[in-house]
């Protein structure tokens, strides 16, 4: 006997067709939906806290896996995922989130206004019914892909096991896309066609420049503009730099690396020598502009973006356009052979040769020395994600990544911590051919320690590097230096290696660089399972980018 298809089944059919993996925590409101997926053999990663559902799907998308789905129940399940939902919304990452909702008969004592809460975060909710479950779920994927935003699909609790109504022909998803009342407050219309006169003008500026620089951001990654921008740079002899989210975009030997607070000082100095700068798909926010110290000497700054206008007062010309289309238009104007340009006179920075002392005066490791050593140990095919914290600038500065999808920093949009392990789940699912690596802090890792169990169950191989200073280092170095008491910012040191071993993983306490031999041995033996490297770093080594931040904010340091 054939089972009648239910509303939950109809939603699951669409999700299974679009998302190879679903990150979920099951509860009353989504149990039927999740069971429909697992009963057909579809991959569902069961996490330990709902925060991990959305950030895992978010990171899956950024790592190149496509639009993933997240799922949680109504009420507490919904509220638990709000932090990672807000991060996905602010970072503009497409995710479809399937949640339970209040019954169609009205709210219960346990219900909250989930649609209103989501709307306050500029996240749209589509509620499914017996006649439109398929169409509404297809619509959610269409909106997520079109606008690069998370979209919620709600299944009312009294409809989860209700049979679908095929007697009514639902509107097509494409038609609904235009008809639905969509929260568009922060969305953008399609970029206009490029005027040839604009391309000719910008091409001329670049060709005449003595020290041209092309600075690419995440928008250039989304537009797949890396190859075109590289060819533009080759035509005019430009150097390249990128935002964190475009790390390694052009693959050029003339790439200076990350521009902004995470730049090495010598790289930032060289970027500052550019006379004409083409900024493509980069926000030019405060951190990217190195607290307004990065492009102070540029004579002309041209910004190309799909936003409606320039994002920084230093921009001299703004062109609203798709990054790849604009680069191709420039190539059509730059018909002369490649020239040396700035490349003929510049001395490119090599690998960071500054000697980092192994240990700080307090006897604990210098985190810069640790990350530099890891660069030599880790395989080239790696996917790196980080949590937020004082440590977060050292990995982008000292660790290489094979492409822009292999260096993530979830939590940066919302400025939150505790998303790293959930992110690692998504990265590992998107790129199983690469070693997943998480660099996290002790405070953030403690917030999501339960997800270590999920890692052990779901990920065959991953490295977790805990930068352990027994403190919320960001707060210590931002507010302790202002004279605030730091008692609530520090805590007893936790042995994360022992915790990993107790839960069935591998681990080592790293108190000397030679202890990283344990990581090397694990790699040499096939990197099986989860390895937690608990690195005892000095709380007294302060990142230069944080000192820049303090100076920018007028902080006079009153203590070391």
UniProtKB/TrEMBL annotation:
GO terms for molecular function: acetolactate synthase activity; flavin adenine dinucleotide binding; magnesium ion binding; thiamine pyrophosphate binding. Its cofactor is thiamine diphosphate. Keywords: Thiamine pyrophosphate. One of its GO terms (biological process) is L-valine biosynthetic process. PROSITE patterns: TPP_ENZYMES. Residues 201-330 form the Thiamine pyrophosphate enzyme central domain. Residues 342-361 are annotated as: Disordered. One of its GO terms (cellular component) is acetolactate synthase complex. Residues 387-519 form the Thiamine pyrophosphate enzyme TPP-binding domain. Residues 6-108 form the Thiamine pyrophosphate enzyme N-terminal TPP-binding domain. InterPro entries: DHS-like_NAD/FAD-binding_dom, THDP-binding, Thiamin_PyroP_enz_cen_dom, Thiamin_PyroP_enz_TPP-bd_dom, TPP-bd_CS, TPP_enz, TPP_enzyme_TPP-bd. Belongs to the TPP enzyme family. This is Thiamine pyrophosphate-dependent acetolactate synthase large subunit-like protein. It comes from Pseudoclavibacter helvolus. The lineage of its organism: Bacteria, Bacillati, Actinomycetota, Actinomycetes, Micrococcales.
